[in-house]
Amino acid sequence: MQPTLTIDLDAIRGNWRNLARQNGGETAAVVKANAYGLGADRVAPALAEEGARHFFVAIAEEGAALRRILGPGPTISVFSGHMPGDAELIASADLVPMINSIDQMLRHVEALPGHPFGVQLDSGMNRLGMEPAEWGALRDIALAQNPVLVMSHLACSDEPQHGMNDFQLRTFAELTHGLDVPLSLSATGGILMGPDYHFDLSRPGIGLYGGLPFIDAQPVAYLDIPVIQVREVAPGESVGYGNTWIARRPTRVATIAAGYADGVLRGMGPKAYVYAGETRCKVLGRISMDLIGVDVTGIEPVPDHVELLGRHQSIDTLADAAGTIGYEILTALGARYARRYTGG
Ligand SMILES: *Cc1c(COP(=O)(O)O)cnc(C)c1O
């Protein structure tokens, strides 16, 4: 029996609506990495129905798959821009590459003259986009080709007080001063920082999927894991690989049917909990590839399944246990779950 991953499409729609209400400009939706692991084939159409007209993906192949899902109409933009070999996909799937360098600009106008494109500027993160000097050299040439969007990305928008936010805002404003082109700076965190950061278009991802920094997000992912077997363990006995956990008192141990191959990150073992109904149950010993031991001492009746994600535990709580972020918890969710969608 498989664990069940339930994805609440109504919650995703509600989160998009809620962010769109706070956002001054148009609100797009970022659905890269298969909608953060939740299934772009279900998530993107639900968001399109809710009113999203602009979608972002990481690479052209994702964009082509998304076009098959959404059909003609919505704008699909690609953060990695126009990479070697992308021209055919960009043309046939009607994608808008966010051009990141002079090389990409030349490649694009040579392979697909007149095909829409945007420009991504680096305002300080040093990840993707043209450096200010590069943009200075290319600006007039690029503008003559009519970019449909000029964007940049914030490095620290999950920390509103961080000085980097204001620095990047000022840098972006300087780099785009006087342009008559739609502008975009913010993802989820930037929307929450207020109107100065909104410009013409915002690009939320994690907030749609129920993660921080969108503190008011509705939970989206519910993960229930069946109990395979229950045993009584005596003081002095151990549980799991490496004997890292040893019982100090009589303990009832449930072995549940998920492990690190399902994205339950092994490193979270010592700090992780699951829930049996309302009761918090500690993970005992190391997380195996397909199995986890949990403490169900005193829980009556013995549960037939436990909750890893849901009402009692958010992706961010679980991320804390693993020393990571909700984004990684979602994108790590494995292929072995029975996926159920509700709402939509
Ligand atoms: C992933 C990404 C987003 C979405 O960010 P969230 O923090 O998930 O809202 C927006 N813009 C760019 C460039 C991205 O890479």
Number of helices: 11
User: Under the CATH scheme, which architecture of the largest domain would be assigned?
Assistant: Alpha-Beta Barrel
- Rg (C-alpha, Å): 23 Å
Q: Can you identify the CATH class of the largest domain? A: Alpha Beta
Number of domains: 2
Shape: elongated
Family: Belongs to the alanine racemase family.
Pfam families: Ala_racemase_C, Ala_racemase_N
Keywords: Isomerase, Pyridoxal phosphate
InterPro entries: Ala_racemase, Ala_racemase/Decarboxylase_C, Ala_racemase_C, Ala_racemase_N, Ala_racemase_pyridoxalP-BS, PLP-binding_barrel
Keywords:
elongated; Lyase, Ornithine Decarboxylase, Chain A, domain 1; TIM Barrel; 19 strands; 11 helices; 344 residues; alpha/beta; binds pyridoxal-5'-phosphate
Describe the structure.
By secondary structure, the chain is an alpha/beta fold. It folds into 2 domains: 24-203, TIM Barrel; 221-342, Lyase, Ornithine Decarboxylase, Chain A, domain 1. It is 30% helix and 23% strand. It has helices at residues 9-22, 32-36, 40-50, 60-70, 87-92, 102-111, 132-144, 163-175, 188-192, 315-322, 326-332, and strands at 4-8, 26-27, 29-30, 54-57, 75-78, 95-99, 118-120, 150-151, 183-184, 201-202, 221-233, 238-239, 245-246, 251-256, 273-276, 279-284, 292-295, 305-309, 338-342. The strands form 4 sheets. Strands 1, 11, 14, 15, 16, 17, 18 and 19 form an 8-stranded mixed β-sheet that branches. Strands 3-4-5-6-7-8-9 form a 7-stranded parallel β-sheet. Helix 8 (163-175) links the parallel strand 8 and strand 9 (183-184). Helix 1 crosses helix 3 (40-50) and helix 10 (315-322) packs across helix 11 (326-332). The longest helix is centred in the first third of the chain and has 14 residues, at 9-22. The protein is elongated. The protein binds pyridoxal-5'-phosphate.
